[in-house]
Q: What sequence folds into this?
């Protein structure tokens, strides 16, 4: 029912030369059984769009549609550049740019209004997990970050425990299952079963070729949001294949 999604977040990595990796991916996955999305830096979005069937997304947008916001990019501009999706509320932005859930929700609303798919990220810190506050934190971020305008087409939720990002640490499959099940239940409660069950839920945080297949067995894991291992076709391709094999 939910089409699987293998999404890559290049973060602040990549130049024109990196587009060769997209070429390799597109050749290796000419007719994929899952959706493939790469979110390169904004400088590469338009050039990256030459590599169908890989969809291209952005990593942030402004909540306003235009105006005096030096250095920011509006959702309409991302769409104009060729993006079909945008990552919002990544923990690196929540942390380094002090983005709170209200702002993330406003950005997600702006993205959806332009027809972009908002990939809204959330996750707990290690201290919050150790204090057994994970579900409270996720519940708060879900309630605060997701706009009422959300549907199964224009919203994806990514669960990314902060302590698992770029560390090689991965939660147990039970821990992932608990959080994804919780997110699913909350979405169904808020939006009803139809929409709630159609929103795709991604796991992110140190997903690699050697652990992807196990992670993809977890119920309500509809794919992954991959950082470091999305930078090369050699690493990302086996993750895509693991998702196709589910
Ligand atoms: P890593 O896969 O490098 O841990 O990054 C995950 C992430 O933050 C994706 O948004």
A:
């Amino acid at each position: 029912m939910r089409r699987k999604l293998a999404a890559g977040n290049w973060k602040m990595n990549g130049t024109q030369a990196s587009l060769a990796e997209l070429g390799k991916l597109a050749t290796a996955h000419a007719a994929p059984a899952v959706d493939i999305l790469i979110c390169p830096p904004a400088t590469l979005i338009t050039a990256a769009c030459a590599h169908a069937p890989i969809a291209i997304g952005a990593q942030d947008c402004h909540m306003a549609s235009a105006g005096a916001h030096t250095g920011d990019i509006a959702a309409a501009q991302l769409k104009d550049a060729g993006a079909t999706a945008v990552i919002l509320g990544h923990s690196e932005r929540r942390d380094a740019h002090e983005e709170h859930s209200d702002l993330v929700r406003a950005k997600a609303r702006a993205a959806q209004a332009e027809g972009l798919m908002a990939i809204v990220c959330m996750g707990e810190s290690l201290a919050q997990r150790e204090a057994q506050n994970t579900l409270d934190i996720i519940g708060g971020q879900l309630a605060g970050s997701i706009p009422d305008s959300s549907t199964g087409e224009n919203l994806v939720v990514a669960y990314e425990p902060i302590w698992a990002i770029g560390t090689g640490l991965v939660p147990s499959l039970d821990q992932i299952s608990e959080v994804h099940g919780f997110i699913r239940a909350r979405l169904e409660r808020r939006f009803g079963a139809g929409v709630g069950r159609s929103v795709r839920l991604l796991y992110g945080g140190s997903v690699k070729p050697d652990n992807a297949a196990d992670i993809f067995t977890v119920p309500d894991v509809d794919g992954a949001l991959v950082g470091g291992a999305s930078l090369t076709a050699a690493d990302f391709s086996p993750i895509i294949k693991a998702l196709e094999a589910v």
About this structure: The chain has a mean pLDDT of 98.
